[in-house]
Amino acid sequence: MKPALSAALCALTFGVATAAQAQTAPQAPAPGASDPTFSAYALAQQCAAKSDNTAQGQCVGAVRGIVRGYQYGVLFLSQRTSLPDGETKRVSLCLADTTVSSIVDDFLADAKQVNEADLRRTPAEVAVLGSVHAHHACT
Q1: Bridge partners, residue 113, by sequence
Q2: What keywords is this UniProt entry annotated with (predicted)?
Q3: What is the CA radius of gyration of the chain?
């Protein structure tokens, strides 16, 4: 990957993380968490609380903000820099007719496969986008 493209993707990831954190309610660190950022563990706990309307609202808002921020970032990046053929498609998400609830369900299923300590150290944005790319990457 070219250095300019790599730097642009790093900036995009930082922008997505910042936008997603701005759209979520402030979170208290989970007990035992060493990093006060919004972790994949904290988001998975919110999303798993199916009977708690407040937690579900925060979960859906966070996931929607992460995904939309990323999509706008890819669009912005593709308009500002010359990318090699297929590079935009490789980093894009194909979400036509995909509900937020199915993205949340995929994220929860993926999070269950990761040990708790790793989830606590992983930013929620990274985990959600990794899950979405695993299930909805454009090919």
Answers
A1: none
A2: Signal
A3: 15
* DSSP-derived secondary structure for 32-84: T-S--S-BHHHHHHHHH-TT-HHHHHHHHHHHHHHHHHHHHHHHHHHHHS-PP
Q: What are phi and psi of 92, to 5 degrees?
A: -80, 160
pLDDT in tens, 116-133: 999 999 999 999 999 999
**Whole-number Å distance between alpha carbons of 130 and 124:** 10
Residue ranges covered by each domain of the chain: 3-24+37-136
Q: What angle do CA 29, 42, 18 make, to 5 degrees?
A: 80
pLDDT digits over 30-55, tens only? Answer: 443 444 468 999 999 999 999 999 99
pTM of the predicted protein model:
0.71
